[in-house]
Design a protein that fits this description.
The protein folds into three domains: 61 residues, Nucleic acid-binding proteins (OB fold (Dihydrolipoamide Acetyltransferase, E2P), Beta Barrel), CATH 2.40.50.140; 192 residues, Vaccinia Virus protein VP39 (Rossmann fold), CATH 3.40.50.150; 62 residues, no CATH class. The protein starts with 7 loop residues before the first strand and ends in a 10-residue tail after the last helix. It has nine helices and 17 strands. The protein is of the alpha/beta class and 401 residues long. The strands form three sheets. Strands 13-12-11-14-15-17-16 form a seven-stranded mixed sheet, with helices on both faces. It has a six-stranded mixed sheet with strand order 1-5-6-4-3-2, with no helix packed on it. Strands 9-8-7-10 form a four-stranded antiparallel sheet, covered by helices on one side. Helix 1 runs parallel beside helix 8 and helix 6 runs parallel beside helix 7. A hairpin with a 6-residue loop joins strand 8 and strand 9.
């Protein structure tokens, strides 16, 4: 069948792809349909046709799945922030686990059994502590729209509240609407600061306080299982993991390019009396060789928490060459994570021990993962060194000597 935009079809949904769209097929052509569930029969309108796939808009659900629920948000389907509010929460967790396992098998060649069940969030709504809203002039309505980018186009959906945001964020939304930006094209970041942590305005911190303790515990369990005595925290930001895990190791070093974040990391460590480590203001790729020459990396656990795009190939090569006893990788993008872990594990340099998904982003396509890889045949045995940054040739300010 030759599909054309505007064509209306009945489709049976066969799967939910990573990204949240349902997968149907017309002959051999894949058709992606949003806001559906596996097994549903839907009526959809073809919106776009490519050589190998097509996209469609959902018109109506003819045979709903048992897991379909009523969305709590009146903007769901228009606002592009959420993809899964129509799915019962337990089903969301099963879908995300399957998506992560499929990605790790397809991209990394890993056994899907290495992926555990998704750790649920105790609060599936009202959890998000940071959002970005935008302003855009709505010419037909002669008004300023304030809200989120729509899922189907680049326009801003005007919103008065966000169901997945914390109540304090929704109060801030009302304040912005009552005191709107002077024009369109302005981004406004709303944030609830984490209690007891210093976080500069442009520095990263996890967006879900409710599941944050379980994320830390998942990383701590990996660190404990590896038995490393020293921790190297790469892309450390404001030092969250290094500070939280400092008591579990003899010494640590955190590396981060953002100098404002590093200054905050030092103050965060000092506020908690963490004196067994250092923070270095530098890029990971320029720092790793110096650390590798001077540290007992074979006795270290390396924690990676890179941006969504993952690690640079240079960094992965440096880690393969340095051969730390254990690497713990934290990411909100399972696809780039699977890609990077595949590179690390090539030629059996490392072996993937576990992947723990955590639902830090309920109602959305996103999922956080903690993965542990270990050096093949290696063991974390201490070399009795402390003050890792100093031994690596960095002074007390974190600047390379």
């Amino acid at each position: 069948m030759n599909l054309t935009p505007g064509q209306i079809l009945q489709l049976r949904i066969q799967d939910i792809a990573f990204g949240g769209e349902g997968v149907a097929r017309v002959d051999e052509l894949v058709v992606f349909v949003p806001f559906v569930l596996v097994g549903e029969l839907v009526e959809a309108e073809i919106a776009e046709v490519r050589k190998s796939f097509a996209r469609a808009r959902l018109r109506q659900v003819l045979e709903p799945a048992a897991e379909r629920v009523a969305p709590e948000c009146r903007y769901f389907g228009a606002c592009g922030g959420c993809q899964y509010q129509h799915i019962a929460y337990e089903a969301q967790l099963r879908i995300k686990r399957k998506q992560v396992a499929d990605l790790f098998q397809r991209i990394g060649g890993f056994d899907p059994a290495v992926v555990s069940s998704v750790v649920p969030c105790p609060q599936p709504y009202g959890y998000r502590n940071r959002i970005m809203i935008r302003s855009q002039w709505n010419k037909p309505a002669q008004k300023l729209n304030i809200g989120f980018i729509r899922g189907d186009c680049g326009l801003v959906e005007d919103i008065e509240e966000c169901k997945i945001a914390e109540p304090a964020i929704n109060r801030q939304i009302r304040h912005v609407r009552g005191n709107p930006p002077p024009k369109g094209g302005i981004k406004v970041v709303l944030r609830v600061p984490p209690e007891g942590w210093e976080v500069p305005p442009d520095s990263f911190f996890q967006n879900n306080f409710f599941l944050l303790p379980r994320l830390v515990e998942a990383v701590r369990e990996c660190l404990r299982a590896g038995g490393a005595r020293h921790l190297v925290d790469l892309y450390c930001g404001v030092g969250f993991f290094a500070v939280e895990l400092a008591e579990a190791v003899e010494s640590f070093v955190g590396v981060e390019y953002d100098q404002a974040a590093i200054r905050a990391a030092r103050r965060n460590a000092a506020a908690r009396g963490r004196t067994n480590g250092e923070f270095i203001a530098a890029t990971v790729e320029e720092t790793l060789p110096a650390l590798g020459r001077r540290l007992p990396l074979a006795a270290c656990s390396v924690l990676l928490d890179p941006p969504r795009k993952g690690c640079q190939p240079q960094v992965l090569g440096q880690l393969r060459e340095a051969g730390p006893a254990q690497i713990i990788y934290v990411s909100c993008h399972p696809a780039t994570m699977a890609r990077d872990l595949n590179i690390l594990c090539m030629d059996s340099v490392f072996e993937l021990a576990r992947v723990v998904p955590l639902d830090m982003f309920p109602q959305t396509q996103h999922v956080e993962c903690v993965a542990e890889v270990r050096a093949k045949g290696g063991a974390c045995s201490g070399a009795g060194q402390t003050g890792l940054a100093k031994s690596a040739g960095f002074d007390s300010t974190g600047i390379h000597k």
